[in-house]
Amino acid sequence: MTSRHLVPGLGRARAYAVRLSRAVAPFVFLSPLLAAGCAVGPDYRPPQQPVPAEWANGSPATTGALALSRWWQRLDDPLLDTLVEKAVQGNLDVASAKAKIREARASYRQAGGALLPTLSGSGSYTRSKSASGTTSSLVGQSDVANQFQLGFDASWELDLFGANRRAVEAAGYGLAATEEDLRDTLLTLVGDVAAYYVEARGYQARLDLARRTAAAQRETADLTRVKFDTGALAATDAASAEGQAASTEAQIQALESSYAEAVHRLGILLGREPGALTQVLAGAGTIPKAPTALPAGIPADILSARPDVRAAERRLAQYTAKIGEAEAARYPSVSLTGSVTTTAAQAGNLAKGSAIGWSFGPTLNVPLFQGGQLEAAVDVAVAQRDQYAITLRSTVLTALEDVENALVALAKERARNERLAVSATAYRRAADLALALYKVGNTSFLEVLEAQRSQYSAEDSLVQSDAAIASDYIALNKALGGGWDGAIDADPPAATPSNIALASGSAMPTTPVSATAPATKTEGGR
User: Fold this and answer.
1) What's the pTM value of the predicted model, to 2 decimals?
2) Over the stretch 89-127, which tens digit does the pLDDT of each residue have?
3) If we measure between CA atoms, which residue out of 524, 449, 454, 451 comes closest to residue 486?
4) What is d(CA 439, CA 271) in angstroms, rounded to the nearest whole number?
5) In 3-state terms, what secondary structure has residue 1?
6) How many domains does the chain have?
7) Residue 196 sits in which domain range?
8) How far is CA 71 from CA 197, 306, 480, in A?
């Protein structure tokens, strides 16, 4: 049953509201004309950000778009690719960033609502009893009356000086900045997943080397103990062999601890418990090999590629718009208001035989004296805008520093790796030669142990360098702004372990990220 049947005459009362809206209509259509071009405050213009023409370390600058799209796939590791996709789906920081986007969208809609008129309705029923004022009232008689009242109120603030439009503008810039924050979160996430994966594979390689070396050293120590028991070897040689084997075995414990920490961190990045990837990464794997081609581009590229730079620029625009919003509060405001009420003793008479009243007209509000608050609010907005201008410049400089550091680190590590490879080969040959000379009695056993210790140290340094090259390559892509370039749907709630479950073996199923709801997605990889 409709409200029209519940309250007889309600439909006729609505007719009076329609008459009111028709009376106000000329003001409604006139208000945009009055407000056009009257938004106070500065109009935003993106500031010029001076950047060098080329990289300071001498890396060649390349023209054209940076090859940052899914850069981690160039490491040629299918398991890493799957881990990245799972992290994008399940990471809790990403889920939080999506929630912030939904909040910003709601704030944007809320700000836009201030540009539209408001309409509210009210209704009341009163039953009252009053003394009649006659002699009969002295013996308890009284008059009882019912009163039904229905009313509609409408108002619309004419945005003559653009306060509401500036608020909508600021909210729109804020929404754009929040979307860039999500991109920045994804950039950090992808880089961290790749970095911890390389770190884990590096510890695995070092553990394999340490275990093989420790096994060989333990075998040597056992032999020296036998020779010492038979008097064929000095006590110092036996003690040195035992000490070297124990030292290498002790390093294994430290490496296993560091490996476990890297695996645990990967689990957390995927939104899972720390041990979720223990079995996944237990299988054989090698340190990803970074490609030799570097996606350096030119310094100006980071202004469009880095989401943190884009977010800082959007926030500068947001707080520039807030200056106009604060400035408009210092000017008069005009509102159109109207109301219609109908009162009757019976509900069925609300629009027939009832008392009907209506009113409409403009309302002017002029701020005459506010104790300097409105002027101070403008100064606050200007100071905030200046802060975000400085933040933007600082973000650009930090981005340039990140790229320069990554380029230098990668170039120097590659050169270091070449020398470490030569060193490992030389020490391996020296250890073999020392052992051969010892067998024929031309050198001491301590020289053999020293040569083997140097061989192990050189080979371990080479493995660490291999992992460092991959890590520096990851850092370079992060510094250049390479992150997730797929569609991101911010509408679903935070991911739960049930929809990001991993396989228990060394392989993991790949589930594509949803690309639905084009109206609510952001695009990256610019």
Assistant:
1) 0.80
2) 999 999 999 999 999 999 999 999 988 999 898 888 888
3) 524
4) 57
5) coil
6) 1
7) 37-42+67-128+144-331+367-522
8) 15, 15, 11
